[in-house]
Design brief:
- Helix content is 43%, strand content 19%.
- The chain is an alpha+beta fold.
- The strands form eleven sheets. Strands 5, 6, 28, 29, 30, 31 and 32 form a seven-stranded mixed sheet that branches. A five-stranded antiparallel sheet has the order 8-9-12-13-14, covered by helices on one side. Strands 21, 22, 23, 26 and 27 form a five-stranded antiparallel sheet that branches.
- It is globular.
């Protein structure tokens, strides 16, 4: 043992190996650490497998997994072999003796240092590059599956006459292979050059030749492969021009070939391809010539050609041929872009009709009747009245409704009616005492549907509920009311075990239940419990006594999460909505197939085109794939998620979509045929909002079919800002049952308005038939307003409402006290050549912390009304209301500056009732000025009761008394 410290007679400190106990402890800790890391990785894998098996989509998990594993090993092994072979070859081709020099003497130390570890170093380097390459390749599983399963589009691009599937499915995979080839070649060149340098094959400062013949030949071949790959890149770039994006004069983003692409870049890429092939052959020729002279000259010429032919020549063509006569040169290519874009976004059949914007009829009585037939105007705004649902139907603090409710259709007396609907979901923020048991075992689910008529309110401005209370009762009949899966259910729950769940509460107290569905993963197995304890970071899952036989863990509980997990190739709509179907609450989720490779079709960013004033306030309504750039989209799948069992079903909606057919080949038996959709479910399917937003954004430019008009930019529209929202975000589309001019009856539709670019007047009104199962489903109708005259747009109509003196004064009174006025959705309805605007006005205040409908704003052809009800507002706008013939109520201004005195009567009962009526009326007026709606409502009730007493007393006084009976005494209630 070596000794340290002290002199010959000083103390000695013995330094040696650790004791056996210490070594055993360190080894044990090391093994435990490795096992812990391994189990953590296993836990994530195992819980994913269990979840997919529980939802019966295990084939999605296995197909995705094996595809990733296969790509990882194949491309990781290819990269490792390519780099390892070239390192081995460079070492094998090393010169036997290196010339003695300072440079080589310095390198000798490194050669001697690594000599004992050469094999391990080689294995380490190849393993590292293989792991990196494999991990990168595994992320291309979608590209691989689309290439190997791709089906034909049945359409050819106009330039190369190749099927669209080549650009959508094949070209992305070829580009990946090319990128992998470049990476493997570049890494091999670097590794081989370093090895040659280390062993003397390459010299920097040593005398004599700079490279041995073997090193020259080896590196020349690698560089020749690189240049050959560049030739392939030039050839693929030719096809890439069809899907290339660039800025263009009339559009934000242009995709496809322009004049300069077809007449300069395309021939340039072909010429550069030929030059690169020749240059690659010159590099390969060094195996025989053993000189760099010709390859270097060839490579220099290729670089010079790329600058002159690939850069300078197209710039000259653009400057001197295109710009002097741009419209004539670009028109044929714009026409191709117009056609392809309209096809790719499903807007090629959009029907554009000229619309005057001014009423053709003058008969006001007819107009009033037509207004009732033109639309079932929804005065219940689902984006405003959620707090009203919350206040009136929350029942318990641990329930909550979504911020934005949904609009659906339900049948009443054989007639469809627009219905505002929301689910009473669990709200963990409102539970009485928060702890692990309460959060995950006791408060596990919501309860019941709440629905209200969309077109009417009660006398107090509250919704007319068609399904309400707890448990919910009403028009929807019997259905499973427990909601274990919903938009607000973002945490896991453990159900079905020994711990009872709170079901709901009524006057008799709390009711408990146990989950009886087959959803979730069984936790009876200790391995499963350990895996979830690790995966969720909850060690209590492993040992809690609340988990026992029958316990199941539910997670991934929002509808969008579940659909996205079982179909990762789909893009999910931002708004899932509930419906009662076959006695069950089903979440309906729209899903899209997209591609970025449709030739000539302009691209759009989903996150930008689907943003509006609602998504800005509520992130849960935003599209999942925020930054996805696409140039083809189809609503190809309708999905449902059972709110009780969590069962996910995917239905093929677009039976012609080649992208969906490709994914159905890759994942067979995951999507059910369209014929499997039941009639009851079909009644609740609708046109999706996000697709409509994408289409309306494209139609702001692509509603024109003439290339010259498109290039001029004179008819570019824009989606207006929401006039009722100060955020500056786009107005959302609205669901509304209305009748377009060419329709004979109302149809459930999704509507929007469009304005000229940079202006506020109206350019167009757009609607799409939104009711699934009908012949016109998905038909887009656009009413185009004239450009010679101006028609007020939404912002101008809102300004008109706000600036009219009588309305402004009424709004000021409504805002009295602590009341707040909230404007509802500004709905637009085409009516006899003109446009009818309707906007509900809600008041929140006077002790009520939820909005109530108090007024309705209506305007048509410059006439505006601000009344208590829609009917009264329409009557006033169309002047179909009979002039009042009765005297004003007691004490009210008669219009001439005097007030009507309270009437008198000799009958004391009548007189007392009239005095009570006067007091109630005065109290009501005072409450109205203060904005105290609760006091106002009470005063109106008292006024009605007092007037009824007066009327009954007068009628009794006029009735002759029976001869044999004494005169009746006043009743106690009348005195």
């Amino acid at each position: 043992m070596p000794d340290r410290g002290g002199g010959p007679t000083g103390p000695r400190i013995r330094v040696g190996r650790p004791s056996r106990r210490a070594r055993t402890l360190l080894l044990t800790l090391g093994v435990l650490a490795v096992l812990g890391m391994a189990f953590t990785m296993f836990a994530g894998f195992w819980t994913d497998w269990l979840w997919y098996r529980s939802v019966h989509y295990s084939s999605v998990f296995t197909t995705t997994l094996w595809t990733k594993v296969g790509l990882f090993f194949v491309f990781g092994l290819l990269m490792a072999l390519a780099v390892g072979f070239n390192i081995w070859l460079a070492h094998r081709l090393r010169p036997p003796l290196a010339a003695m020099s300072v440079e080589q003497q310095s390198l000798d130390r490194y050669r001697m240092g690594i000599a004992p570890y050469k094999k391990w170093l080689l294995l380490g380097i190849t393993a590292l590059v293989g792991l990196i390459a494999g991990a990168s390749a595994s992320g291309q599983w979608r590209t691989w599956l689309m290439w190997v399963n791709g089906v034909s589009f049945g359409q050819k691009d106009p330039q190369f006459h190749m099927d669209v599937s080549f650009f959508a499915f094949d070209l992305p995979w070829y580009r990946f292979l090319l990128g992998f080839g470049f990476a493997a070649t570049i890494i091999s060149v670097i590794a081989a050059a370093l090895t040659h340098y280390l062993y003397g094959g390459l010299r920097v400062t040593s005398p004599g030749a700079r490279a041995t013949a073997a090193a020259t030949g080896h590196l020349s071949v690698l560089l020749g492969i690189f240049v050959a790959l560049k030739a392939v890149a030039y050839w693929l770039d030719r096809y890439g021009l069809a899907v290339k994006s660039s800025d263009f004069k009339a559009t934000d983003s242009w995709t496809g070939l322009r004049y300069v692409d077809a007449n300069a870049y395309l021939p340039a890429k072909t010429i550069l391809f030929c030059i690169a092939v020749i240059c690659a052959l010159l590099f390969f020729a060094t195996l025989w010539r053993r000189t760099w002279q010709l390859p270097v000259i060839g490579f220099g010429l290729m670089v010079l050609s790329a600058i002159l032919i690939g850069g300078l020549y197209p710039a000259i063509v653009q400057k001197f041929q295109v710009q002097p006569n741009e419209q004539a040169k670009e028109a044929p290519y714009v026409a191709k872009n117009l056609k392809a874009t309209r096809e790719a976004y499903g807007i090629d059949d959009a029907q554009v009709t000229e619309y005057s914007g001014k009423p053709a009829a003058t008969d006001k009585t007819k107009l009033r009747a037509d207004a009732d037939a033109a639309a079932s105007v929804r005065i219940m705004d689902p984006n405003i009245i959620s707090p009203t649902f919350q206040q009136l139907q929350q029942i318990r603090n641990y329930y909550a409704f979504p911020t934005n409710l949904d609009v659906d259709r339900y049948t009443k007396d054989g007639k469809d009616q627009d219905t505002v609907i929301g689910l009473r979901e669990i709200n963990l923020a409102g539970i009485p005492k928060k702890n692990w048991i309460n959060n995950h075992f006791r408060y596990t689910h919501g309860y019941g549907v709440v629905a209200a008529q969309g077109t009417s309110v009660d006398s107090e401005g509250r919704p007319v509920f068609t399904e309400s209370d707890l448990p919910s009762t009403g028009q929807l009949g019997e259905y499973q009311q427990r909601i274990y899966y919903g938009e607000r259910t973002t945490t896991y729950s453990i159900v079905g075990g020994p711990q009872k769940e709170i079901d709901y509460s009524d006057d008799s107290g709390e009711k408990t239940t146990s989950y009886t569905g087959d959803s979730g993963v069984n936790l009876s197995n200790p391995v499963n419990r350990a895996a979830y304890a690790v995966a969720f970071g909850e060690p209590q899952i492993l040992y809690s006594g609340a988990i026992g036989e029958g316990s199941r863990i539910l997670y991934n509980r929002t509808p969008k999460e579940r659909v996205e997990a079982v179909a990762p190739w789909l893009t999910i709509d931002g708004d899932a909505y509930p419906a009662v179907v076959h006695g069950k609450i089903q979440w309906i989720v729209d899903a899209y197939t997209t591609t970025n490779g449709y030739p000539y079709a302009s691209r759009t960013t989903l996150g930008d085109t689907t943003a509006d004033s609602l998504t800005a306030a509520n992130n849960s309504r935003a599209v999942v794939a925020q930054q996805n750039q696409v140039n083809y989209i189809r609503n190809s799948v309708k999905a449902t998620v059972d709110a009780y069992t969590g069962e996910v079903k995917l239905y093929q909606w677009d039976t012609q979509d080649p992208v969906l057919k490709t994914w159905m080949k890759a994942f067979p038996d995951t999507v059910e045929p369209r014929s499997a959709i039941s009639k009851d479910l079909m009644d609740h399917l609708r046109y999706p909002q996000d697709l409509f937003k994408v289409q309306r954004e494209l139609l702001t430019r692509y509603h024109v079919k003439d290339a010259t008009t498109f290039l001029s930019g004179s008819e570019v529209w824009q989606v207006p800002d929401d006039p009722t929202n100060k955020s500056g975000d786009a107005v959302p589309p609205y669901y509304l049952s209305l009748k377009m001019p060419d329709q004979k009856a109302q149809a459930f539709s999704l509507t929007t308005t469009l304005t000229p670019n940079g202006r506020d007047n109206l350019s167009a009104f757009m609607a799409v038939d939104a009711e699934a199962g009908t012949a016109d489903y998905g038909k887009i109708r656009i009413l185009k307003l004239p450009t010679s005259t101006t028609v007020d747009g939404p912002k101008q109509v809102q300004s008109q409402f706000n600036s009219e003196q009588d309305i402004a004064e009424s709004i000021r009174l409504l805002r009295g006290g602590d009341s707040e006025v909230e404007y509802g959705n500004l709905l637009t309805v085409p009516l006899d050549g003109g446009l009818l605007y309707v906007e509900p006005v809600y008041v929140r205040g006077g002790g009520l912390k939820y909005p109530l409908l108090r007024k309705v704003l209506v305007t048509y052809n410059g006439n505006t009304a601000f009344e208590d009800t829609l009917e009264a507002a329409l009557d006033k706008v169309f002047d179909t209301q009979s002039p009042p013939t009765t005297t004003p109520p007691p004490g009210e201004d008669d219009g001439g500056g005097t007030t009507t005195p309270p009437p008198t009567s000799s009958n004391p009962t009548v007189q007392q009732a009239l005095q009570d009526a006067q007091k109630a009326f005065t109290a009501g007026q005072e409450a109205l000025k203060k904005g105290d709606w609760e006091a106002y409502g009470k005063a109106q009730t008292d006024l009605g009761a007092a007037l009824k007493r007066a009327e009954d007393a007068q009628a009794a006084a006029k009735k002759p008394a029976p001869a044999a009976s004494p005169s009746p005494k006043p009743s106690p209630s009348s005195s």
